[in-house]
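re: that chain from earlier
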Amino acid sequence: MEFRRITGLPPYVFAEIDALKLAARRAGRDVVDFAFGNPDIPSPEVAVEKLAEAVHNPRNHRYSASRGIPKLRQAVAALYQRRFGVDLDPETEVVTTIGAKEGLSHLMWVLLGPGDSALVPSPSYPIHIYAPLFAGAEVRHVRLGEVPEGGGDTSEVFFGNLMEAWESAWPKPRVVILSFPHNPTTACVDLAWMQRIVDFAREHGIVLVHDFAYADIAFDGYRPPSILEVPGAKECAVELYSMTKSFSMAGWRVAFLVGNPQIVAALTKLKSYLDYGTFQPIQIAAIVAMNEAPEYPAAVNEVYRSRRDALCDGLGRIGWPVERPRGTMFLWAPIPEPYRELSSLEFARFLVEEAEVAVSPGEGFGPGGEGHVRFALIENEQRIGQAVRNLRRTLTKL
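^ sequence. v structure.
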């Protein structure tokens, strides 16, 4: 049988690591899992209690609002005002999505089609690459990599690469997908950088789509900027804010597209044909989380900071120094020099089989990811210590 849209998809390399991890555990081996960025921190208790209460009300069992119930949209508008000083009209500048992946994927359907193209950082979270392709558009990869020899700022390197990709592209790309703090590389930018890209987009009629998944996961005094903090950004930009990482509500699937009202309206119209919204008790509980547990993201952030420090310190002690990220719940680790004859998939396979440590191979994040592996900070400090001991025993060439 012949299928559409999925025939060109490459093998999902993360699935191989998952299979190896599962096989090892079935054999009784204790694999420390850093492979999948699946938050293990509990969701806010007040949200869980509200969910349990709301689900007992049969009125909440009916179809809900695809765009999100009014108080939910009001809650995220209030959050943006508190957190970023950004005013949002909950009626015209906010739509609820069933997670950020769903929101981004369907957004590409209204922004792109055959003959269009999008600029996407490389490496990148896979949906950033494949959502434009599912819409029938082309993807032009923009290198987001290490600082070149002689020094420099990673964000400046990326901006220069972005300008070069724009100049060389024909037809000119309609959309630029951004995500800072960045998964998987953990790269960060400041508000001045956002100002420059907004100015460029307004000048050239480009739509900026900023996936702000790690809005609240930042360390060492760094505060990730919302692109909507830039004056004039609503003319050309939308942003995806998710409760997955900030409030540790991954399985709840609650996110929002905010910003440019025309783009928000376009996605709202499409979604009205595709879904009836997230289960209403979940929407009600998400309102309570934002309104009654506004400090919860700070508590979540502290857990990730502690894990980051434990893992960076542990890897450094065994001769595998990794840059300490300023944002995200990940470490982006170059494969140690004595093992660079292995591909990232081979190295990740080696770590599962020999060290009982699971990581994500860099090649799974598209061009530019090879030569690295990604650690997700989803294990506690005790398990991190166990992983470091396993790695010390296994990586004998360090």
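The chain has a mean pLDDT of 94.
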